[in-house]
Amino acid sequence: MKKRFVLISILLLAAVAATAMLSGCTAVKEEFSPAAADEEYKNQVMSSSVAYEYLEWLGGEDMRSRYGSVDSDELNVNYGVGKAAVKLAAEMESMGYTPVEGVSISVNSEGYLTTYGGSEVTGIMSYSTAMQGQSGVNVLYEKRATNGSRGQIYIITHFDNLFGTTSSGATVITAEGAYENGAAVASALYTAQLLAAAQTEYDIVFAFLGSSVISASNTIYYCWDGANELLKKLPSLYGKDYDPVLVINLWRLGGENLYMYSSDSPTSYNNYFYAVASADGADFEAVPDYKHSFSEAFGNYVLAPSPSGVYHPGVLNDSIYFMNSGIPTLTYMSLDWEGGKENADPSSPDVAYTGSDTLDNMKLSFGGGETGVQGITEQLNSVALNIVNAITGKNAAMFQEAISTAREELSSDSDALYGLSIATTVLTWAFVIGLLIAAILLRGKNVTKMISRKPQGSAPSDPFTDFKNGGSSGGPFEEFDDDKKNGGGKNSSGGGDIFEGF
C-alpha cells in the first residue's frame, strides 16, 4: 500500500508540475528592428528641460492641491482638483490640441458645477466616484490623424494627488505628489508637446485622469474611478469611429528602474517598444520574471479582475480596466518591481501617498542637486522619446505591424490562462483528494492489520498459562525452570540464569 501511495503522489505531482511548466511556456512573439531616432532630434529631446519644468509646475502651490474625490457640491474650477483640471486643459490647448467633442462641464458664476445654465468649460468631464456623494474630473484632449485615422491611441495618466481637505474628514497627505503621479503627468505633457507637430496615422487622445486613489476613514483606496469612467464614456464619445488601438499609461515615474508592461505574457507590441528603446539607447529594464506559473494560473480562476490573478505592479494602476476589456495597454513605470516602492533600498521610506512625496526627495534618490535633476530629466525624456519614435516617422509602419496582432495575442493568452487555470484547479483538487483517499486507505489497512492480530472467537490468552501448567520448552519462564533442565538438580546453564549464585 505504501508503494501505491507513493506512486499516486508522484504521478499527481508530475501532472501539476507539467501544467505549471506549460503555463510558463509562451509562443515566441515577433521581434523587430526599428530605426533609431534622428541623432539631432534625439539630442534635442533628451536635453530638453520641458518635462522637468512641468514637474516643478505640478508641485507648485496652485497645482499640488488636486485631491481627486470631493463632495459633489464642492467641485469648483477655481480651486483644488477643478482648478488643476482647467490649467491642464489650457496647457493642452496652447499646444494646439482640441477638446474631445462632447466633453464639457457647466459652471455657475462662482465656478461650481451646475446642471442648468451657467458657462460651458470644454475638455473636462465630471463623474460620480466610488465614494457616495463625491465627484471627480478627467481632462480629455485630442489630435486627429493627419490623413484618415486607423483608430485611437490613448495616452493616459492620473493627475490627482492626495493633497487638500475634504468635508468627509478623511486624512489627506500634504505633499506635492511628485512620484505619485506628478512626474508621469510631466512626461505626458512633454510627449504631447512633441507629438503636436508630428504626422500620425492615428488619433492621439490625451486623458488626464482623476480619482485614481482616494482616502476615506483614514484609509487609502485604489479605485481608478477616472479610468473606469473614461472607458465607459469613450464608445459614446467616438460613436462608430471608436477603435482603441493602444492605451499607453504613464504611472509612477521618477523611481529606480524604468519598465514597460503590457500583459502577463509577452506581446509583439511590447517587444516592439523595447526594441525602439534599445535602438535609441534608452535605459529601460526588462520586466522581471514575475510569472509564477502555478500560483498565477490558479489565481486567474479565483481572483478576478486581474488578468493574471496576482496583483503585481503591472496591474495595480489605471490601465487595469482597459486590460480587463481586452484593449492593448502599455504601462510605463519606474520602481523596484519586487518591493513595489520607488527603489530597492530597504531603509528608504515609502514615498507614494505620504508627506515624503516631494520633488526634493525625488532628486535625492537620483543623487541630489544637479545630478538629481539630470537623472529625473533623462528618465522623463526617455519615456517621451520612446513613445514618439515608436508611433511616428520611419517606424510608423512597423508600429502598425506590431500592433496589428495585439488583440489576437492578448485573447490567445487570456484563453490559455483561463483554460490553464481550470486544468490546474482540477489537478490541484485531484491531488488533494488523492492524498486524502490514499491516507484513508492506508489508515484503514493499518487498522485491519491490528484487528486481525487479535484471536477471534476465544478468550484472551494468558501469558502465565504455560507456567501454571508446568509448561514445556518455549515458555516465557523456561530459562528459570531448573527442575526441567537438570532433572531436579541445580541450574547448570553456565551463567545463563540471572539468579545464579543465590
Structure description:
The protein has 502 residues and is an alpha+beta fold. The protein has helices at residues 2-24, 39-47, 50-58, 61-64, 80-94, 178-196, 225-238, 268-279, 293-302, 320-324, 359-365, 369-391, 396-404, 406-452, 465-468, 482-486, and strands at residues 70-71, 98-99, 104-107, 119-122, 124-128, 134-143, 152-158, 203-209, 213-216, 219-222, 244-250, 257-261, 329-335. Strands 1, 2, 5, 6, 7, 8, 11, 12 and 13 form a nine-stranded mixed β-sheet that branches. A two-stranded antiparallel ribbon has the order 3-4. Helix 6 crosses helix 12 and helix 8 (268-279) packs antiparallel against helix 13 (396-404). The two termini are 53 Å apart. The model is unreliable at 18-26, 291-309, 415-425, 458-468 and 470-502 (pLDDT under 50).
